Amino acid sequence: MLSNLGELYRYRGLIQTLVARELKARYRGSVLGFFWSFVNPLLLLLVYSFVFTVVLPRGELVSLEPYAVFLFCGLLPWTWFSSSLSDGANVLIINGNLIKKVMFPAEILPIVAVLSNMVHFLFGLPILIIFLLYYAVPLRLTELAWFPFVVAVQFTLTLGLVMVLSALTVHFRDIKDLLANILTLWFFATPIIYPMSFLSDRGKAIMDLNPFAHLAISYQEILFYDGPFGHWKWLLALAVAGLVLFLFGYALFDRLRDSFAEEV
């Protein structure tokens, strides 16, 4: 496993090519092209803002101001996370023609799935910055310095999960259908459309078991809340857990790789 893991750096050119191919294929034939990478997060933000500030009764749930900024701080990374899991779970099956090539490194396909969705996340950041500037939300350099680390932790955690899902979905096709329902539940079980303070003590204790909750809170504390970044200990613990999960996911992927060509 370690030897195969060490080979990943050699495939950086191939990974870059496949990520570019994936991005071009996603918007091939559309009029706006890559501009949809900016429009999609903006439209998603407007829909959720309308639902939770106009359709639903006002109250503590939506009393955060500016609510659009609070929502986007969690919604943008969640879109990267959920899209990576959805795409990554099915990535080996979709690319079965590549898997059947003897010399093709199958492990780069989950990486491509996560990286391509990460690019869309990065494209959405200007929209978030515009909202931060429009609402005059103060940004502190001491907290912003943590932002790249949060992104790195999310990348490692997401890649570990995608490694596991992609390897298992080849053998158990029901996973991709079950995953859609799990992600819906996971979204509402994460403090994205509501603050962590909205929960009871018991709810907060349960929420601590949710890994993405710590990512969402980290983004919110860095970009939205006025105060020190107090969630750094949870973030460091999540970084270690994400690394362990990635190693486990890669080991599982490496163990099952010989069966991929037959199953796809």
Protein traits:
about 260 residues, mainly alpha, about 0% strand
Which helices and strands appear, and what pairs or packs with what?
Elements: H1 2-6, H2 12-26, H3 36-55, H4 67-89, H5 91-94, H6 96-99, H7 108-134, H8 141-144, H9 147-169, H10 174-188, H11 201-207, H12 211-223, H13 232-256, H14 260-263
Explain what you see.
This protein has one domain (2-263). With 264 residues, it is mostly helical. It has helices spanning 2-6, 12-26, 36-55, 67-89, 91-94, 96-99, 108-134, 141-144, 147-169, 174-188, 201-207, 211-223, 232-256, 260-263. The model has no long low-confidence stretch (mean pLDDT 85).
> Which range does the strand content fall in?
under 5%
Distance between the termini: 22 Å
Main pleated-sheet profile: none
Shape: globular
Summarize the structure.
By secondary structure, the chain is an all-alpha fold.
